[in-house]
Specification:
By secondary structure, the protein is mainly β. It has one domain. It is built from no helices and 16 strands. Strands 1, 2, 3, 4, 5, 6, 7, 8, 9, 10, 11, 12, 13 and 16 form a 14-stranded mixed sheet that branches. Strand 14 and strand 15 form a beta hairpin. The chain is elongated, with a radius of gyration of 17 Å. 29% of the residues are buried.
Length: 183
């Protein structure tokens, strides 16, 4: 029996600027690319998370029904789903990196990302190793709504009482992967 593996790549683009609300005009999006085997397929909608600029040591979250993960009705098997993420890299300066937290705490250049699905009591941290996305397997046609929560890194420095990132006005990019494996 072939095991179908599907990977959804979510590129969470985080717009960074100093803590100045007057210039907090940028927006960000999640871009999704679907690849995988023909045995099963999963669909994620919508493909965008727009929220504007972010500040140091600040939490941002989507609505808990922001995203909908669906196992295609044409799939031929139930699937177990998993989620992982990567470090965030500055699009204009790849030497500026935010490390994805492994313990749920943010720090200087360390950010935290969580998700919360319909069958979960609280948010679950996303790490670089696979975390089970849903506590139950999903059958063809099943859907699971979920939301994301982000805690940005602590400030790189403070000037005049205002916290800043070293690369203000930059765009940070990370990848979140949701995969499905035949149950």
């Amino acid at each position: 029996m072939k095991f179908g593996i599907i990977t959804i790549l979510l590129a969470i683009i985080l717009a960074l600027i100093p803590c100045l609300p007057a210039i907090a005009q940028d927006s960000a999006n999640i871009t999704i690319t679907l690849t995988g085997a023909k045995e099963s397929s999963i669909i994620l909608t919508p493909a965008n998370w727009s929220f504007g600029a972010v500040n140091p040591n600040t939490e941002y979250k989507t609505d808990l029904t922001q995203f909908n993960l669906t196992v295609a009705s044409t799939s031929n098997c139930n699937v177990n789903t998993f989620i992982t993420a990567d470090d965030a890299v500055c699009v204009d300066d790849s030497t500026y990196v935010w490390t994805l937290s492994s313990d749920g705490n943010n720090g200087e250049r360390v950010y935290v990302l969580w998700f919360k699905g319909w069958d979960m009591g609280d948010y679950t941290q996303i790490t670089k190793t696979q975390t089970q996305f849903s506590s139950i397997s999903m059958a063809p046609g099943d859907s699971n709504q979920f939301g994301l929560r982000l805690l940005t890194p602590q400030r790189d420095f403070t000037k005049g009482g205002t916290d800043y990132f070293s690369v203000g006005g930059a765009t940070m990019q990370t990848h979140v992967t949701i995969s499905a494996v035949a149950a």
